[in-house]
Hints:
- 34% of the residues lie in helices and 20% in strands.
- It is built from six helices and eight strands.
- α1 packs antiparallel against α2, α1 runs parallel beside α3 and α4 crosses α6.
Amino acid sequence: MAIVVRVRPFGETSQVVHLATPDHGLIAALVKGAHRPGPEFQGGLALATAGTAQLVRRPRAELELLRRYRIEEDLRGLRDDLPRFYGACHVVSLLRLWMQPHLPAPALFAAALTALRAQAAAPCSDLAGWTVWFEARALAATGHRPSLEVCSACGRALSGDGRARFSAPAGGLVHDACAPPGPAILLTAAERAGLLRLYTARLPELKREPPDDTAVKAARAVHDLFLPHVLERRPASLDRLPGRAEKRIP
Ligand SMILES: [Zn+2]
């Protein structure tokens, strides 16, 4: 199974695509004759589709050769309206930034597939929640899960009921006295609890009881701060997401 995370035209009828895969990480491949009519590519590969890919390794070439691609997941809903499509673009953009060639990333891949299915079919009111859920799972899968239970600077307990600061350079919540210089936001106890649940609750539980508005907004604000810090760049896809929180400066 592969998710198409980048598509570029190549010559008159071909494409160069990047595929995210669970077992082989990111794969760059040439799709010869992608736009020619025929069953192999169904008219050319499209971004944020998921299917099975038949690849031919070319040991001395930079690009593998894609022989056949068959869509396996019905993600047509992503093309129905802009918030869904932008949500999907954000998912594939993070996949492209985080996946490496030849490095298996099954947890990241599985989270992306779940998020794309949800962006294609979930009620519009849940899309922002699914976006922050995917970001949380992707941060965890790539070793960047923020510290939310104890102070990420000194490791001691945080007060359970009060406000706490989320510091991007510290990598999580910190005591006021421990906060290093750099971007931070203040979270209420309710926002902290919602954020923690987003990171720790299992998927079936979150499907039964989706994160509330407070949790989604808090996670949006935290991830707006934290993702550019972790990635060392601000993904353009962040600015097109629905349900964005206002910037808050403590
Ligand atoms: Zn501390």
